[in-house]
Amino acid sequence: MKVTEHELHAYVDERLEPLERREVEAHLAAHAEDAARVQGYREQNAAFRAAFDPVLDEPVPDRLRRIDTSRRSARIAVAAGWLAVGVAVGWFAHALVGVRSGPAPQSLARQAAIAHAVYSPEIRHPVEVGAAEQEHLVNWLSKRLGAKLKAPLLAAEGFELVGGRLLPGPGGAVAQFMYQDAKGKRLTLYVSRVEGTQRDTAFRFSQEDKVAVFYWIDGPFGYALSGEFAKPQLLDVATSVYKQLNP
Amino acid sequence: MDLQAIAPHIPRLRRYARALAGDQHAADDLVQDTLERAINKHHLWRQGSDLRAWLFAIMHNVFVNQLRARAARPESALDEDDLPPVPSVQGARLEIRDLESALALLPPEQREIVLLVGLEQLSYAEVARALDIPIGTVMSRLFRGRERLRTLLTGASPAPVLKAVK
Q: In terms of domains, do B59 and B129 share one?
């Protein structure tokens, strides 16, 4: 019975039926050279596993866990560009008090404004998870940020939840909730984990080019509410958000 | 589908990429490009089909593009049979370094198949689909790749490659 090369390899890879396997084994018993090859190929497979299986247990690098589309990175670069002037002005204009570690509140406002500028114009993919799956959204983002989050209800202020997404931030994962009014005008709530000894802060305001931002630190989180709205209207919404998060 | 769905596959993509690309940095670049492309092209993934096989297919395309981009070494100009003989590593027991250097000496199209079959345990048909080539081509590259690797690792004299495929 002639055994084909295909069968020898299928034998190595354990893809033969019992009958075929016995045929191959009979062949190998009579053909030392083929038996040596099969042994060599089997050792290769074992050596691959021995050499590369440890990769499975390595922690996945951050750059692979927070991946997103290159198209999106390009848009972040553009948004960061047009915000740079406003940010530079804001950076020097706002003296910071009581900040000892972690991302400074000003950078929180800037990151939030950039994220707002990038995602709020999106027509088709403004969020990763829509408001229809609100419970899943909140659980998912809470899990990734490592503390319980809430998506405030802003219907009284005229905004409904669109959904949310996970973003990379300077200190790890960041959540962004997006809302829109009846005209489709959007605001975003950016929630970032604040590490270290930062104290709670009062509302601070920053105008990042066209985007107005109210931001504050409360417990483990820094919050930033961003939108192209007049300051008093945004303040109303920020007040509502703050109250709902501190019932 | 989003990164959430893909995330469980990342460790195995990294394992394969490490074996394919050699060093960790190049391997993770390969994985990163693969993930970005998968997310950009998620609408092309057929719901219910094997996501992992689809990701390997994408990684193959990214890998081939990366090879093409390294224009200094045009792979297509070399027929694998014309490659000069490579000095073999003597001694039967192989060290990891020897394995990695021997893998690096395989033509990339053989390395991919030897690893997809031997390391990732894809079936021959799955490999053919992932690489978008006929199964006969998969088999002949597997035969050649394994035999070349064996001679590199053990210093054995190459067995004649049988052209006949069942």
A: no
In our burial notation (b when 16+ CB lie closer than 10 A, e otherwise), range B139-160 reads bbbbbbbbbbbbbbbbebeebe
- Tracing tokens 């053909």 back to the chain, one arrives at A31
Cβ separation of B40 and A69 shorter than 8 Å?
yes
ipTM: 0.80
Chain A nearest-CA residue for B12: A56
Residue-level pLDDT at A19: 92
* Total structural domains within chain B: 2
| Last residue of one domain, picked from the residues B45, B77, B109 | B77
Q: In whole angstroms, what is the distance from residue B9 CA to residue B119 CA?
A: 15
Count Cβ atoms below 10 Å from residue B114 Cβ, excluding itself.
Answer: 25
Min Cα separation B134/chain A (Å): 14
Say how many C-beta atoms besides its own lie within 10 A of residue A111's C-beta: 27
End residue of a domain, out of B34, B57, B77: B77
Chain A interface, mutation test: which of B36, B137, B161, most A Cβ atoms within 10 Å?
B36
Query: Which residues in chain B have Cβ-Cβ distances shorter than 8 Å to A56?
Result: 11-12, 14-15
Residue B166 counted as domain residue: no
Which pLDDT score is estimated for B71? 53
Q: What is the pLDDT of residue B99?
A: 87
**pTM of the predicted model, to two decimals?**
0.52
Contact B161, B144 (CB under 8 A): yes
Domain span at B14 = 1-77
> Which CATH number does the domain housing residue B4 bear?
1.10.1740.10
Inter-chain residue contact B35 with A67, CB threshold 8 Å? yes
Confidence of residue A194 (pLDDT cuts 50, 70, 90): confident
CATH number of A62-245: 3.30.200.100
Does residue B164 fall inside a structural domain? no
